[in-house]
């Protein structure tokens, strides 16, 4: 899967069932930390599940099924991270940004982000 995408296993907040989402890694601030973004805002079901139960499992690169804890980023840090992503990945951002703006029906993107901190066994 590489390091640009990760598989996030989370628990359904209503059903208690395991759920999965493949997400792009927006930033990697430390070797055992990954920042992910909810492109559809706070209404995304995976995001709502993780906020309700931040204990998740992550598969990325050579790491498989590693326990992690998700922590929401504050809005200022999330905006700075998104700006940094746009600078580092201009071609990807040129395709992604209009799609997100259309889906959220707003030109100003205020996307929630989470930091996943791996808690190795």
From TrEMBL:
Question: What residues form the membrane-spanning segments?
Answer: none
GO MF entry, a single one:
oxidoreductase activity
InterPro entries, per the entry? F420H2_quin_Rdtase, Split_barrel_FMN-bd
The family database entries (Pfam families) matched by this protein are listed as:
F420H2_quin_red
Q: Which branch of life, at top level? A: Bacteria
Instruction: Provide the leader sequence positions.
Output: none
Tell me which NCBIfam families the record gives. hi_GC_TIGR00026
- Its recorded name reads Nitroreductase
Q: Which organism is it from?
A: Mycolicibacterium agri (Mycobacterium agri)
